[in-house]
TrEMBL record:
Membrane-crossing residue ranges in chain numbering: 47-68, 100-122, 143-162, 182-203, 317-336
Keyword set, alphabetical order: Amino-acid transport, Membrane, Transmembrane, Transmembrane helix, Transport
Record-annotated Amino acid transporter transmembrane domain positions: 2-338
Name assigned to this protein: Amino acid transporter transmembrane domain-containing protein
Pfam families (alphabetical): Aa_trans
Gene (UniProt): LOC100281553
Localization of this protein: Membrane
Length: 355
């Protein structure tokens, strides 16, 4: 949202014009308020349409970014810019080799974030209908999703670096690498906003369900925690009804636990985003922390238990070796992400994302 306002401001007043550096705190609060409304939906079953929108918009901004980078690359004769040493020398820091290594670790965390979907995989599989069997459908969907994600990562990474070289921003769209054509850049950023709205709910709904289950089990006899109240929908919303007119008026289920707990979680995440507004670094840290336990250890452990793979077998050693390598990647990516967050905090103020 900040990028949309800045791109339009530069298009109207000229590149570098004063007053084109909005603060992101207001937009983060607006985003959080919108998530508060969506979070009151019961489960992933009720936001299937939001998942479709998220997928469509993710493809939209990916294709736009790929097209913009390809056009930029072609504009300087197809010559590949940049060096194998990376962008550390451009950053103006004293120890270029050290910074280059941290940049690599941070990049690993960002890539790992795209593969930390195991926490929502089972929830999504639970929404599928059979036949065919849910596990077969999910396996096929996972294979297609991983293949498409990998292709886009390689294509965008290679064309982006070929186009900008060592000056490539951390984020092609929000890093203000492009200002024109402004309408196309705006369209891509709108797709990013819509995608993040859907992605937030897809990842948050299983967390909400788990927290609510834990609280309900901890205090099973508390009326306020386990109560659900039904509020009749106002007559002005009856046009939204899909049932026959003879059916009872629709009601809205209101659970105090869901209302309070989900509000607290969203307020907390919004506050953290305002305090640490560093997209790449935070994304890398989340990806690093979630990659090994959710995408490697948990699925591998289930696989070994299901197939009864015994300790000491060749398959057991191979799976353990793969898990250990992925653990090292997660640790290394965490180090790079924390280093980048600490570095950015030295030059940033809380609730200030203008720069």
């Amino acid at each position: 949202m900040i990028a949309i306002k800045r791109v339009n401001c530069f298009h109207r007043d000229g590149y570098g014009a004063a007053g084109c550096n909005p603060s992101g705190s207001t937009y983060m609060v607006v985003f959080g308020l919108f998530q508060l409304l969506l979070s009151q939906l019961p489960s992933l079953h009720n936001i299937a349409w939001l998942s479709v929108v998220a997928v469509a918009t993710s493809l939209g901004y990916s294709f736009i970014s790929l097209g913009l980078c390809s056009a930029k690359w072609a504009s300087h004769g197809g010559h590949v810019r940049g060096t194998l040493a990376g962008a550390a020398a451009v950053a103006g820091r004293a120890d270029d080799d050290k910074q280059a290594a941290f940049n690599v670790l941070l990049a690993l965390g960002n890539i790992a974030f795209s593969y930390t979907f195991a926490d929502v995989l089972i929830e999504i599989q639970d929404t599928l209908r059979s036949p065919p069997a849910e596990n077969r459908t999910m396996k096929r969907a996972s294979a297609y999703g991983l293949a498409i994600t990998t292709v886009f990562y390689l294509a965008l990474g290679c064309t982006g670096y070929a186009a900008f070289g060592d000056h490539a921003p951390g984020n092609i769209l929000t890093g203000f690498a492009f200002y024109e054509p402004f309408w196309l850049v705006d369209a891509a950023n709108v797709c990013v906003v819509l995608h993040l709205v859907g992605a937030y709910q897809v990842f948050a709904q299983p967390i909400f369900a788990r927290l609510e289950s834990c609280v309900a089990c901890r205090w099973p006899d508390a009326k306020l925690i386990n109560a659900t109240y039904y509020v009749r929908v106002p007559p002005c919303l009856l046009l939204l009804r899909t049932s026959s007119s003879s059916s009872p008026p629709p009601t809205l289920a209101v659970a105090p636990l869901k209302l309070v707990l989900r509000t607290i979680v969203i307020m907390f995440t919004t506050l953290v985003a305002m305090l640490v507004p560093f997209f790449n670094a935070v994304l890398g840290l989340i990806g690093a922390l979630g990659f090994w336990p959710l995408s490697v250890y948990f699925p591998v452990s289930m696989h070994m238990a299901r197939l009864n793979i015994r300790r000491g077998e060749i398959r057991w050693w191979m799976l353990q070796a793969m898990s250990f390598v992925c653990l090292l990647i997660s640790v290394a990516a965490s180090i790079g992400s924390v280093h980048d967050i600490v570095h950015n905090l030295k030059a940033a103020a809380p609730f200030n994302t203008a720069n």
